[in-house]
Specification:
Length: about 350
């Protein structure tokens, strides 16, 4: 069986690059008779950030859709109109559905693009959505299957220090990740629990802005910004609470990773993912999306209720087993074999 993945490049340390590489490597190494190829368009001669199995083929087309990033969006859309109409994360986060304009012309284009995209999706044998919540955004489609992304960080034999006085958040320093809400929430937490620290790991353009916010709130000793690290597993193991403050997600990989280490999670119930992964009050806590005061209150609840924090961490670890590569790969294998069975010969 031949399977091809496409993405712009493999050079970035992002979630898409990590998941595609992880799945491709696993399928090539564990599924007999599977011929796996990753196609990129603008690798630019650079090595993949995540190691590729020698059994995975990599073909780069040498066509710079995105690079250089200084190109205007209009310029890129004029050169590659179909490449730049895409949905990433969820239907309403990017693409035509995300255009919020009062212009009648823009709204007409938005509707036309959206209808055309749905029509094209309906012609596919199957459309894969990461979450049950996300699948509800596509009521027009009858060819949907739900397969979440797997946890790609090795967790075997590792366990968090659930009694530590550290909380952790992981993600890009970008508006999507909501750290501009998490930092004020932690200001509330720090007033009640000054011995606790929040560690945020990431990269991005907003780091300077967040640093200033920490200074303004006098949180320099309680809230620490770090660069992305290669040993994030060690950082998880030093933490007892994980906080997801995102405004929206596709399926938050960092939430699954934290749960796999037995960390009790607190998350905004943003679209999409947290509601699929967390059963509120059992293996974590869900907070009204964007509610800073409630986020702080629930973090304080886990800090003050040590026994509950320990039990939620234990249940989180159990839930995370549903997202291991062994489990997810079986779902993909069944799908591939089902599609091949009905494919025209």
């Amino acid at each position: 069986m031949k399977i091809a993945y496409y993405l712009p490049s493999l050079q970035a340390p992002g979630g898409i690059e990590r998941i595609v590489t992880f799945k491709a490597n696993y399928f090539a190494e564990h599924f007999e008779g599977y011929d796996i190829t990753i196609i990129t368009s603008e690798q630019m001669g650079k090595a993949p950030h995540f190691p590729l199995s020698p059994k995975v083929k990599h073909i780069d087309l040498g066509v710079s859709f995105d690079l250089p990033y200084s190109q205007s969006t209009v310029s890129k859309m004029l050169k590659y109109p179909f490449r730049y109409y895409r949905f990433h994360v969820s239907r309403y986060a990017y693409g035509a559905e995300a255009l919020k304009r009062k212009s009648a012309i823009v709204n007409m284009i938005k509707k036309r693009w959206a209808n055309r995209f749905v029509k094209n999706l309906s012609k596919l044998s199957r459309v894969i959505i990461l979450t049950s919540e996300g699948a509800k955004d596509w009521p027009e489609l009858t060819n949907i299957s739900i397969i979440p992304n797997p946890i790609s960080t090795p967790v075997e034999g590792k366990q968090t220090d659930i009694l530590s006085h550290n909380a952790i958040a992981v993600g890009r320093y970008a508006p999507q990740k909501g750290f501009d809400m998490l930092i004020p929430a932690w200001s509330i937490v720090a007033q009640r629990h000054p011995d606790w620290k929040l560690h945020i790991y990431g990269e991005g353009d907003l780091k300077e802005k967040f640093t200033k916010l920490i200074d303004e709130l006098q949180l320099n000793n309680n809230c620490l910004l770090h660069h992305t690290v290669s040993n994030i597993a060690e950082k998880y193991c030093m933490s007892s609470i994980f906080v997801l403050s995102s405004r929206y997600e596709g399926l938050p990989l960092v939430l699954g990773e934290a749960m796999a280490y037995g960390i009790a999670p607190v998350a905004f119930a943003c679209p999409c993912g947290p509601r699929d992964m967390i059963t509120n009050g059992k293996n974590g806590l869900l907070v009204e999306n964007g509610n800073i005061e409630q986020l702080a209150k629930q973090i304080c609840y886990l800090i003050e209720k040590e026994n509950i924090r320990i039990e939620m961490g234990r249940q989180a670890k159990i839930r995370a087993k549903d997202f291991t590569m062994e489990v997810i790969s079986r779902q993909w294998k069944s799908l591939f074999e089902e599609l091949m069975e009905y494919a025209p010969q």
